[in-house]
Design brief:
Chain lengths: ~230, ~100
């Protein structure tokens, strides 16, 4: 495969090879993060398939940003006695209560890297939820993202984030739309003066891809790769 | 190319900004930046120079660094020939 004439896409088999390379690199470079796990799955479980089909999974990543105004809200502590006979006082006096700020709630995110046979590129599917499992809508997820991502989102979110049925789990997930992927992947690899062979491109493909898409969530892709 | 080092021990990194795709070429494309600065500074500089909010910024070996990365770490990993080449394009990463 001539990299100069490559269109930036992958075959399903390339994706599997690339996925394993990515998960290995990720694990060896990034001790702070859990590993990406390959989940064997099939879109058509009733058909016998000679090839291993599946996707990469990284789950329960805490994406909450620490809130600087994170203080416990303490409502007015009073003796609790109602003031009778003071018509001017319209305040209802509560019993003393200590209200835990809802800012303590942690948000988690699951990420799946799924191959798209239509676009022939990896696609990032994600869902976010609270510690009690309650799924979060996109507006809530937005608050957990780095500032530049939420700026981009507020401008044009529905052009690149869609909610669809997860191709394997058949449940609604969000996905980063892949239609531009092949173009910027080509740019990433072909601007490299080294002009690598396709085998090297495949080794690095998902790492390079994730270095871009991971930034949407403020996720840091490791790069201390020994050349 | 031994330039006089400033009295502080902060090492400066030479950065070359390289236009790719359809991006305009900057008149001033080379500069020095303290290694302890974050990559975000380079991205912001580019945004201001090009009057664009969305830029696709990446370095050698097909990698797009997180804005929080230190310039010196990027230089140590991706630098070549005494400089860090930072490529930029105006194409949309999303959609």
């Amino acid at each position: 495969m001539d990299v100069l004439h490559w269109d930036g896409t992958l075959s399903a088999k390339d994706f599997r090879v690339g996925a394993f390379a990515f998960s290995q690199k990720w694990e060896s470079l990034n001790s702070g993060f859990p590993p990406w796990v390959w989940v064997l799955s099939s879109k058509h479980p009733w058909l016998a398939s000679p090839e291993e089909e599946g996707y990469l999974s990284l789950e329960k990543i805490c994406i909450s940003r620490p809130n600087e105004e994170d203080i416990d809200q303490i409502s007015q502590i009073d003796t609790g006695e109602e003031e009778i006979g003071c018509p001017g006082n319209e305040d209802v006096i509560d019993d003393a209560t200590l209200v835990q700020s809802s800012h303590h709630e942690l948000h988690y995110c699951d990420f799946h890297i799924v191959y798209s046979s239509t676009f022939r590129v990896p696609v990032l599917y994600f869902r976010s939820y609270c510690s009690d499992g309650r799924p979060l809508p996109l507006d809530e997820i937005e608050k957990d993202l780095p500032a530049c991502s939420s700026k981009e989102l507020s401008k044009s979110k529905w052009t690149f984030i869609t909610q669809e049925e997860h191709p394997y789990l058949k449940r609604p997930w969000f996905k980063l739309h892949p239609c531009g992927t092949a173009e910027w992947i080509k740019l990433l690899f072909l601007s490299d003066t080294a002009k690598p062979k396709f085998e090297v491109v495949l080794e690095l493909y998902l790492l390079s891809w994730f270095s871009v898409v991971g930034q949407m969530f403020g996720l840091r892709t490791p790069f201390k790769i020994s050349n | 190319m031994a330039a006089a080092e400033p009295p502080s021990s902060v090492r400066k990194v030479v950065v070359h900004l390289r236009a790719t795709g359809d991006a305009p070429i900057l008149k001033q494309a080379k500069f020095k930046i303290p290694g302890t600065d974050k990559f975000a500074k380079v991205i912001d500089f580019l945004r201001r120079q090009l009057h664009r909010d969305t830029l696709f910024v990446y370095v050698n070996s097909a990698f797009s660094p997180n804005p929080d990365e230190l310039v010196i770490d990027l230089y140590n990993n991706f630098g070549f020939d005494g400089k860090l080449v930072v490529n930029y394009a105006c194409s949309m990463a999303w959609g």
